[in-house]
UniProtKB/TrEMBL annotation:
GO terms for biological process: regulation of DNA-templated transcription; regulation of growth. Residues 1-54 form the BHLH domain. It comes from Zingiber officinale. Keywords: Transcription, Transcription regulation. The keyword Magnesium does not apply. GO terms for molecular function: protein dimerization activity. Pfam families: bHLH_ILI. This is BHLH domain-containing protein. The lineage of its organism: Eukaryota, Viridiplantae, Streptophyta, Embryophyta, Tracheophyta. The keyword DNA-binding does not apply. InterPro entries: bHLH_dom (IPR011598), PRE (IPR044293).
Length: 88
């Protein structure tokens, strides 16, 4: 790898922003369909917030699953199977 950075054109940035808008739920980007520079920055901030909320949700669900597995009578093999499913 040479130390040179490849430049991304404005068109490529706009295309990536459009793809990002498609991935986010409507309530995170419904105001930003025009995709101007200012809305792109806002969209990136909202994307970060959305990712943080997903991390929080995963953490909460993992805790609930752990509690459920602790309260349920699984033998070692069954617990291993369930853990391997949730790791994938």
């Amino acid at each position: 790898m040479s130390g040179r950075r490849s430049r991304i054109s404005e068109e490529e940035i706009n295309e990536l922003i459009s793809k990002l808008q498609i991935l986010l739920p409507d309530n995170y980007h419904h105001r930003h369909r025009g995709s101007s520079r200012a809305s792109a920055a806002t969209l990136l901030k909202e994307t970060c917030n959305y990712i943080k909320s997903l991390h929080k949700e995963v953490s909460e669900l993992s805790g609930q699953l752990s509690e459920l597995m602790a309260a349920t009578d699984f033998n070692g093999a069954q617990a291993e199977v369930l853990q391997s499913i949730f790791r994938s």
